[in-house]
Amino acid sequence: TSEETKLPKLDVSGKEWTTWKVHLQLAAGSRGLAGYLDGSKAKPIDPATGKSVGWTATSPDEVKAVAEYEKDLAVWTEKDTKMWHMIANTLPNSIFVRLVGKTTAHEYY
What we know:
The structure is a single chain. By secondary structure, this protein is an all-alpha fold. It is built from 5 helices and no strands. It has helices spanning 17-30, 34-38, 60-88, 93-96, 105-108. The protein is elongated. 11% of the residues are buried. The mean pLDDT is 90.
Protein backbone atom coordinates (compact mmCIF):
# COMPACT_ATOMS: atom_id res chain seq x y z
CA THR A 1 0.00 0.00 0.00
CA SER A 2 1.41 3.38 -0.97
CA GLU A 3 1.43 6.35 1.36
CA GLU A 4 -1.00 8.16 -0.96
CA THR A 5 -3.71 5.56 -0.31
CA LYS A 6 -3.58 6.45 3.39
CA LEU A 7 -5.00 9.88 2.64
CA PRO A 8 -8.75 10.14 3.13
CA LYS A 9 -10.87 10.27 0.01
CA LEU A 10 -12.98 13.40 -0.29
CA ASP A 11 -16.67 12.63 0.02
CA VAL A 12 -18.59 13.41 -3.17
CA SER A 13 -20.85 15.76 -1.19
CA GLY A 14 -17.86 17.76 0.04
CA LYS A 15 -18.62 16.74 3.60
CA GLU A 16 -15.43 16.72 5.67
CA TRP A 17 -13.72 18.95 3.10
CA THR A 18 -11.83 20.83 5.83
CA THR A 19 -10.48 17.57 7.27
CA TRP A 20 -9.51 16.34 3.80
CA LYS A 21 -7.74 19.64 3.10
CA VAL A 22 -5.70 19.48 6.33
CA HIS A 23 -4.70 15.85 5.67
CA LEU A 24 -3.60 16.81 2.17
CA GLN A 25 -1.61 19.82 3.44
CA LEU A 26 0.13 17.67 6.05
CA ALA A 27 0.94 14.98 3.50
CA ALA A 28 2.30 17.57 1.07
CA GLY A 29 4.44 19.15 3.78
CA SER A 30 5.82 15.84 4.96
CA ARG A 31 6.91 15.03 1.39
CA GLY A 32 8.42 18.45 0.66
CA LEU A 33 5.62 19.25 -1.78
CA ALA A 34 3.72 22.00 0.06
CA GLY A 35 4.86 24.68 -2.38
CA TYR A 36 3.39 22.73 -5.27
CA LEU A 37 0.06 22.47 -3.46
CA ASP A 38 -0.21 26.13 -2.43
CA GLY A 39 1.37 27.49 -5.62
CA SER A 40 4.38 29.10 -3.94
CA LYS A 41 6.78 26.83 -5.86
CA ALA A 42 6.44 28.44 -9.26
CA LYS A 43 7.19 26.69 -12.51
CA PRO A 44 10.68 27.70 -13.73
CA ILE A 45 10.73 30.44 -16.35
CA ASP A 46 12.12 29.54 -19.74
CA PRO A 47 15.13 31.74 -20.60
CA ALA A 48 13.65 32.09 -24.08
CA THR A 49 10.63 33.93 -22.64
CA GLY A 50 10.48 37.43 -24.07
CA LYS A 51 13.05 36.67 -26.75
CA SER A 52 12.31 36.67 -30.47
CA VAL A 53 10.80 33.58 -32.08
CA GLY A 54 13.52 31.09 -32.90
CA TRP A 55 15.91 32.44 -30.26
CA THR A 56 18.78 30.08 -29.49
CA ALA A 57 21.23 30.32 -26.64
CA THR A 58 24.62 31.30 -27.98
CA SER A 59 26.67 32.82 -25.17
CA PRO A 60 28.09 30.62 -22.41
CA ASP A 61 25.77 32.31 -19.88
CA GLU A 62 22.72 31.68 -22.07
CA VAL A 63 23.69 28.05 -22.64
CA LYS A 64 24.15 27.61 -18.88
CA ALA A 65 20.78 29.27 -18.19
CA VAL A 66 19.03 26.95 -20.65
CA ALA A 67 20.68 23.86 -19.16
CA GLU A 68 19.73 24.94 -15.62
CA TYR A 69 16.18 25.68 -16.76
CA GLU A 70 15.81 22.24 -18.33
CA LYS A 71 17.09 20.57 -15.16
CA ASP A 72 14.92 22.71 -12.89
CA LEU A 73 11.87 22.14 -15.10
CA ALA A 74 12.34 18.36 -14.98
CA VAL A 75 12.50 18.43 -11.16
CA TRP A 76 9.54 20.82 -10.90
CA THR A 77 7.44 18.71 -13.27
CA GLU A 78 8.18 15.51 -11.37
CA LYS A 79 7.29 17.00 -7.99
CA ASP A 80 4.21 18.83 -9.28
CA THR A 81 2.99 15.58 -10.86
CA LYS A 82 3.49 13.74 -7.56
CA MET A 83 1.37 16.35 -5.79
CA TRP A 84 -1.21 16.29 -8.56
CA HIS A 85 -1.38 12.49 -8.26
CA MET A 86 -1.88 12.70 -4.48
CA ILE A 87 -4.81 15.05 -5.00
CA ALA A 88 -6.34 13.02 -7.82
CA ASN A 89 -6.16 9.80 -5.82
CA THR A 90 -8.25 11.34 -3.05
CA LEU A 91 -11.03 12.74 -5.24
CA PRO A 92 -14.19 10.96 -6.29
CA ASN A 93 -14.44 10.55 -10.08
CA SER A 94 -17.35 12.98 -10.26
CA ILE A 95 -15.07 15.76 -8.97
CA PHE A 96 -11.93 14.55 -10.73
CA VAL A 97 -13.50 14.80 -14.20
CA ARG A 98 -14.30 18.48 -13.60
CA LEU A 99 -10.59 19.17 -13.18
CA VAL A 100 -9.52 17.85 -16.56
CA GLY A 101 -7.59 20.58 -18.29
CA LYS A 102 -5.91 21.94 -15.18
CA THR A 103 -2.16 21.98 -15.64
CA THR A 104 -0.68 22.16 -12.14
CA ALA A 105 -1.31 20.62 -8.74
CA HIS A 106 -2.11 24.07 -7.38
CA GLU A 107 -4.87 24.48 -10.00
CA TYR A 108 -6.27 21.10 -8.94
CA TYR A 109 -6.25 22.19 -5.33
